[in-house]
Amino acid sequence: xxxxxxxxxxxxxxxxxxxxxxxxxxxxxxxxxxxxxxxxxxxxxxxxxxxxxxxxxxxxxxxxxxxxxxxxxxxxxxxxxxxxxxxxxxxxxxxxxxxxxxxxxxxxxxxxxxxxxxxxxxxxxxxxxxxxxxxxxxxxxxxxxxxxxxxxxxxxxxxxxxxxxxxxxxxxxxxxxxxxxxxxxxxxxxxxxxxxxxxxxxxxxxxxxxxxxxxxxxxxxxxxxxxxxxxxxxxxxxxxxxxxxxxxxxxxxxxxxxxxxxxxxxxxxxxxxxxxxxxxxxxxxxxxxxxxxxxxxxxxxxxxxxxxxxxxxxxxxxxxxxxxxxxxxxxxxxxxxxxxxxxxxxxxxxxxxxxxxxxxxxxxxxxxxxxxxxxxxxxxxxxxxxxxxxxxxxxxxxxxxxxxxxxxxxxxxxxxxxxxxxxxxxxxxxxxxxxxxxxxxxxxxxxxxxxxxxxxxxxxxxxxxxxxxxxxxxxxxxxxxxxxxxxxxxxxxxxxxxxxxxxxxxx
Amino acid sequence: xxxxxxxxxxxxxxxxxxxxxxxxxxxxxxxxxxxxxxxxxxxxxxxxxxxxxxxxxxxxxxxxxxxxxxxxxxxxxxxxxxxxxxxxxxxxxxxxxxx
Amino acid sequence: xxxxxxxxxxxxxxxxxxxxxxxxxxxxxxxxxxxxxxxxxxxxxxxxxxxxxxxxxxxxxxxxxxxxxxxxxxxxxxxxxxxxxxxxxxxxxxxxxxxxxxxxxxxxxxxxxxxxxxxxxxxxxxxxxxxxxxxxxxxxxxxxxxxxxxxxxxxxxxxxxxxxxxxxxxxxxxxxxxxxxxxxxxxxxxxxxxxxxxxxxxxxxxxxxxxxxxxxxxxxxxxxxxxxxxxxxxxxxxxxxxxxxxxxxxxxxxxxxxxxxxxxxxxxxxxxxxxxxxxxxxxxxxxxxxxxxxxxxxxxxxxxxxxxxxxxxxxxxxxxxxxxxxxxxxxxxxxxxxxxxxxxxxxxxxxxxxxxxxxxxxxxxxxxxxxxxxxxxxxxxxxxxxxxxxxxxxxxxxxxxxxxxxxxxxxxxxxxxxxxxxxxxxxxxxxxxxxxxxxxxxxxxxxxxxxxxxxxxxxxxxxxxxxxxxxxxxxxxxxxxxxxxxxxxxxxxxxxxxxxxxxxxxxxxxxxxxxxxxxxxxxxxxxxxxxxxxxxxxxxxxxxxxxxxxxxxxxxxxxxxxxxxxxxxxxxxxxxxxxxxxxxxxxxxxxxxxxxxxxxxxxxxxxxxxxxxxxxxxxxxxxxxxxxxxxxxxxxxxxxxx
Amino acid sequence: xxxxxxxxxxxxxxxxxxxxxxxxxxxxxxxxxxxxxxxxxxxxxxxxxxxxxxxxxxxxxxxxxxxxxxxxxxxxxxxxxxxxxxxxxxxxxxxxxxxxxxxxxxxxxxxxxxxxxxxxxxxxxxxxxxxxxxxxxxxxxxxxxxxxxxxxxxxxxxxxxxxxxxxxxxxxxxxxxxxxxxxxxxxxxxxxxxxxxxxxxxxxxxxxxxxxxxxxxxxxxxxxxxxxxxxxxxxxxxxxxxxxxxxxxxxxxxxxxxxx
Lengths: 507, 99, 642, 260
Description:
The complex is a heterotetramer. By secondary structure, chain A is mainly α.
């Protein structure tokens, strides 16, 4: 069991499922097609659990479950995969969210379109998995771009009236970022040849490359630009509200919960290890953008009249926290940022899917159309409140642990910046509770009168998310046990140590 | 053996072929011009083969001929198809690529 | 005897013991009400029938266990009375290590007894009060959730876990204030409470972060070990941040504005959360952080200033309120101001702060329940101007309320006399100004409480036509009676033989105050002030009160009616300002960010329009372009070779 | 410069220019054939006898004949005109082509490096064997691919040239109905077009039929001939005779069977 190529299988299994679902004739019935898709996603989850059981804590190797096959020998490109703590956690997030999203979106699309929709989701899962396990920069880049294709169709075909425009905007932004990234990737490769005499895209080889600070700066700029579009940081964010606002809730969850994580993931996996000196030197820029994003996103969320746009802006704010933690260069900050990536995926799913249930019932995403929905859908109101509180980082939920550790880690190095960022939790309370107040309380509006409360299927789809969010809020340490070696490794790669305690006489 | 003359001849034929492509409107005549250009390059190949003293140039010329033959077949078929729908062999009439 | 002069000064002497025996089951205290909350909230409508009863049983069970643990604790020698139970490793990242640990020491024990005791009574009361409410299962679920969170707050052995309980009670408070979801005012009040509390949370968060940065620990034990090594600035800042947190939760100026609005919730909630327990969490936090405050006089001074301002502001607002619950809420604010002030006095005041907190828990909860009983009788009317002469129809309610009234006034031998007078003495010890303020506060309290009780139970009948007041059922009156008993006896019991001092001093330390004025003189001064307040009220309200509030009132009354313009300031500065920021950002996003994206798009479109002109569709044009390109490339090659 | 080269080169250029300048496509094709043959001679001259033969067989023999076939099918139309319709195209084309020719001459012509060894000396078993060795050795993959290309091209040509019937074939009755419906709508003559040479001295296809008033029936000459402008003039005498005949002034002997 131990020597199976788990990671390649995790990439291939959903892809096979996707092709199979594509191939099933529609005449067989939408329910069967959907069941096959869901089955594949559950199978993938099972495979992930098996793979996770092979993962060992406390080993010296950075990457585990590694595989390495030659791909394009002439350029030193290989199909090389492996996971460390961060990769494993992201894989877990993907494996959990996809079945949840499929189940939640069971009736979001018409029966004729269901097969293609579900197949595209599975395809996306495959590509995103490849991104998260690639330890070869070229392979990472390829899947970084390829995953846009299913996403483009998911936004452009299954959203509201503005979906096509939004999909094109999403694609153009991503492609611009990807193009700059490509330039960076090629440049790294060329420089690696100049320095060592042979070119390779292997991560470890590139991380040990002795790049000059000058070229590191340029490469940092290129990589950071691409990842900041994906993450997204203000002012490169404007595609996200459109994309999330125009797509169906399930797609928005995949987009924000998983796809955007590639940006912050890329920062930790490639940006910091490959360009450590430049990262430390240019961190203030990243931190400034991060704090800007936190407040900008939160303020825009308050000003939003559309639920999905609001949630998209909330996510921009949250990505600000993640980037803040990454560039604080403390163990707590980086571990917290990685934990944030996990918890943000969960809280996004909780809020988006629950709100999606409501929007599906009223066929409107305008906040003002919903009022007093509590009277007709008390259970759904509970889930929406849970989602809102989760995005507020209420203590006792996973998002609190994440946000607090990020702020704590930042505070240790940049107290003023962290203090300013902490003020963001007040603004967060305003947007989240105001959303709840405007949608759930008061006298029922016409739109919500007579709608049905949440169904059993919908509860089942959301329960794992809710359970995980609470469980990780009280028992986060298993996740930190997995993540801490990664943050220690990153700290070592950027050559930073945690600040000492301030007390007189040392620690 | 001075092959420069052959090269010059080849260039002249190529240029005349190019002018043919650019100024003649009859698709069939245009096609003949293209054939002429291909032949001009063939001549250059053969001349180079002679100059370099090996047969590779001749083999390439041979392949060019084969490809040209295939191309003529397809090209003429296309011209016939166009003629059938538009009742003309004028290349200017087939301007659907206009932006 | 109120003082034992043998008790001069005690310094904190407890060290944590690993919990064994029955203390190892400490977690049950929290788990019981949490279990109740989970059953009721997850069980759905199936639990409608037995849910409320189950919910009421849970805090009672917790209370029983708490009493048992209390007796166990009493049996231990003084220095072993801090039991520390570490359940599991909570967070461990590098040097940031936080256990999921509970700590039971005399301070938290006092709170546990108060919370579970008063909590149980209010659960029982609610069985009667909420009897007709169709959604009461949810209500009881929230109540249980609150009790669990509050217990976690006081039992946590570190600041981060305290924070979890802190927010848990905030959440429960939010849910309960907004319990009447269909009322927009309730929803707005709930949100306001949460948001204002969040401002306080920022303070608490920053305090915890600073503690970690300074000391690399956030446990109470760790902080008190290392606090002495901290620099003055760090200690002051931690104290200040903690104060912000405490001000948010305890409705202290400038974060007081949410408490009066919070009265939108059902009355038992006001009694339990917004009078007896949650709002005192700030006092708990300050007393718990005594190791920080003892080392920073500047931080103590900040606490004192906040306490003084709040006690006066609350009393001032209380004078003008016609809404019975809001008047009581203003009074709560003021009384907590006393506690905070006392907590700011250091070892002199900690014990008194807690003592006042406990007695206040009894009499204020009792009065709130009384107010609830009145409202229950008057079709949920809260305007005192529509009450009057109720003492005859609601004898038990009036009796219990009157006991509470005497207690809050500080009439001997009721509970408030012991606790409040001690605070006044301690305040004089620190500063004359603070002392005078407390004295003044006592007088104003006497005035507005007399006004309240006169307008409600005495004076002329001003009822609405459809009002048929009647005494409340036993489930409601019994808790009121029990709380009244507490209001009478608690003060004496807590001071008898210096019991509370001996009990708490190992945690907080103690020092006897030495006010510049002789203590009997002070007592006389206090009682005189109170008597003056009562007299004015009787003169104004005993006979007759207007059915409609007069409008030609002084500027001070107007200010008090408007909560001293707290909301107006909030609205002008934060809401309007916030709105402007939101609008501004939205405009920037639309014009600058989106605008630049659109601008790039437009440039691209324009360029493509120009280039499109070259796409004539004529094959021969394309061929020409191709040939031109080939020629240029050749030319380039030729040039490069040259 | 050998005499053979001088003659062949002259002929080749003349053929090329002829193709470029002749108005009729058929003439162009014949001129190209001339160029091809000249090139074949040049190949022989360049020690490539095999290619020379292939050139004659494939190009002159097959390709150019295919052109002629297609020309016959397509016929002639206005595209044969030599007047330029695209503004500036002719001038630009000539300028660019001249520039290209010069550039090619200067760059490629200068790049020739003579190795000095003659082809004849390297031939082991003659030219054909040498080429065969290369083709079935070094270039065997290209050869296979070319084979595939040829097959594909053959299939492709069939697909393109084949006309798929997309409407059901009309029977005579339906054709008749359609024709009269057309007449009702557009006034198009329902009967057959007038045959050429009716009432005329000649019955050649380029002779137009004449209407009873002596004027020309425009439809009686096939369109390609009209497009080419080769419609025969009508004699004045002929038309006058027709007018006379139609007015009964003249009676033709032997043509009176059952008429009058």
